[in-house]
């Protein structure tokens, strides 16, 4: 009798917690370009985050959703924000975009001017914050892995990374400084100063090591605070 | 008595017409780039349309609003559609954009890919049509006035003009084929095959003659049907 | 006796002619880019010219030499003129360059300005003429096969073709107007206005039909008085 | 008699010195782009080198010749090497080119590919060394003065500077590492991380301070054993 009561008592307090964990995992959207599109593949970084959460027994607490499309620039994200992000009612959104905004200047003449990059980026944040969504902004990683600022787009990437840091500060959103993490890693781990083959297979897209490294940084940002 | 009746009778039928003309002129927004920004200046094409309407005694029937910003491309229009167009509750919107989408490829590496040009263009139309706004789409005019397809961007401009014609047809919106009009005019009126100085002062922005010519074409499109 | 004399007499006059034909065929260098590099391959245009000459029994009269290197622009030809052309002491040189000068503007930001294109082109001609070499200049063919001037580089290619025509005239050298030939052909033979697949496999490099067509035009120019 | 002997004695020793100084100053050509073209102006860096030499009483020992043309890239130098440099029979040639090779990629799509930059650069050196001319190669200075590698072209400029250092080493010619000097200076003297206004007026062309600084570096290189 007493035992039964105890069980009921436990159930009474525990059920809501169980319910919360089981019914409402934190919904996280990764919003980005081809790296994020590949992120949900068997070796992609989003898959790696899932695996890391499972290893910690926390996979039920999170629902990870990839929303990456190859070739996307910041204004492409803006165009599909409603359908691909807001409609999913996420709790957290990672914005990870900028490589194509810089790269396409040289490769096809269709990159994004710095001032417009900022304008569209802040328009994204504004709409996400209006839905009380927690926003985490990521600096663009790399186009080329040389560690002495001699990759052709390094100047522009450094500048766009600075713009994101300013955006994070100005809009009071969380920063995940991927470019800094990548640069620090490559100073330590690219002694031959190679263009690719460490974290990327082709100067941009990630090797398995790159996906693991990115997943670690994303997960750190996600569980922070 | 009979006269009084007549007066009443006239008033009965005429009042709604008078009211319509006096209270609710047709609100027309010109949505575009630097050419449209200059369009509201003392010699700009929108000012010319006003003057043409006044000369015909129809100026009270139309309210013309310029919504051009220098350097704008199609995605810039998309970003400011709500604030600069929809908020004004227009009856008619001219979309006249594309020159920078092509030009900036060569001048700053920040033009717009053809497929994305179409995508954003149709997103604009969709939002305008959802408000029952009459849409008139304009093909991009010129970057250089040579009349033998030897201006550097002619190939791309011809292609983007074709895309707009297809967009008009596919979305059942009115077409104002400015590029064709300009090309036809320059074949007749540029015997020395000059790069500028006929309809443009600098290969892109309009001379007084250019503003008049553009105004005529816009007005023709506006009063059509 | 009289006959023998006659035979000797014929031999006396004929031998030098025979010798000339046998010992000294006309040496022709094709100087260009990847299209010319492929020109000496089994299905390349230079190989086709050889075959056409053989079919006419004139193959002994000509020695055809390919001097094409992929990615070359006019200044690359200038750099290797001595080694790859003058050192071979040719009688005739076809200059067929310009596609990369235009194309690389968009694809890698490393095209050639029009004024410098002319400057290097005329420097080539000057050095060739100083060696009494017959020069035949070719207009650039196509980047895309659409026949309504809507390929992205059509404006620039039309302009560079005009520059070559002016160079030919100003320097009194023979013109082989390949671009015009290709354009005329495509108006007749590309009813669906396709981008590729008629004379080119990839908008630039030649199909078998393209190599045959180019060979015909080159041969016409070569045998032209 | 004694006096006459003295005079002869003086003449005997002095004449060669006088002759050397008066008849054959060291002829130095500065071969480059618009910065060098401006270098011979009233406040240009070559003028500054002259003034520095005069202050040291050494102006008679050097003849300084500017051979800069605005907009020049490495292949433009190659085209005019004979006329503008070799014809002047110099003892020393500074090659200072590369800014336009990088910059024009973004500004007009007509920059120079890295591999061709090296090829033309080494062709220049080869021709100069064949005339026993002492060659001093300079790394490109700056396009933008931010000191944290966030100017758009910094990556490319760093890479082209590395290529020049390798060229110097591989060809055993003297290096004047202007880019390193400028970067070191800007780390010390640009605390606000401004884009221009320290050594340059417009991110590229030199202020008076810039001309003085450049002149000092050039002079150091020139007098170096």
From TrEMBL, chains A, B, C, D:
Highest taxon of source: Bacteria
Domain SGNH hydrolase-type esterase: 30-211
A Pfam short name: Lipase_GDSL_2
PROSITE patterns with a match to the protein in the record: LIPASE_GDSL_SER (PS01098)
Gene3D superfamilies xref list: SGNH hydrolase
Protein name: Lysophospholipase L1-like esterase
Source organism (scientific name): Dyadobacter arcticus
Upper classification of the organism: Bacteria, Pseudomonadati, Bacteroidota, Cytophagia, Cytophagales
């Amino acid at each position: 009798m007493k035992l039964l009561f105890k069980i009921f008592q436990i159930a009474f307090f525990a059920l809501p917690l169980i319910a919360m964990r089981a019914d409402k995992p934190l919904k996280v959207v990764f919003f980005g370009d081809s790296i994020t599109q590949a992120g949900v593949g068997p070796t992609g970084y989003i898959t790696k985050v899932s695996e890391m959460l499972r290893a910690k027994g926390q996979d039920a607490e999170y629902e990870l959703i990839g929303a990456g499309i190859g070739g996307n620039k910041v204004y492409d994200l803006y165009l599909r924000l409603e359908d691909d992000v807001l409609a999913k009612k996420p709790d957290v959104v990672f914005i990870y975009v900028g490589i194509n905004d810089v790269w396409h200047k040289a490769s096809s003449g269709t990159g994004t001017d710095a001032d417009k990059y900022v304008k569209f980026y802040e328009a994204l944040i504004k709409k996400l914050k209006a839905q009380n969504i927690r926003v985490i902004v990521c600096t663009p990683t790399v186009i080329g892995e040389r560690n002495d600022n001699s990759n052709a787009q390094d100047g522009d990437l450094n500048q766009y990374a600075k713009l994101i840091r300013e955006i994070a500060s100005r809009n009071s959103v969380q920063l995940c400084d991927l470019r800094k993490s990548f640069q620090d890693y490559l100073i330590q781990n690219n002694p031959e100063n190679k263009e690719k083959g460490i974290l990327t297979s082709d100067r941009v897209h990630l090797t398995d090591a790159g996906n693991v490294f990115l997943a670690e940084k994303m997960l750190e940002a996600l569980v922070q605070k």
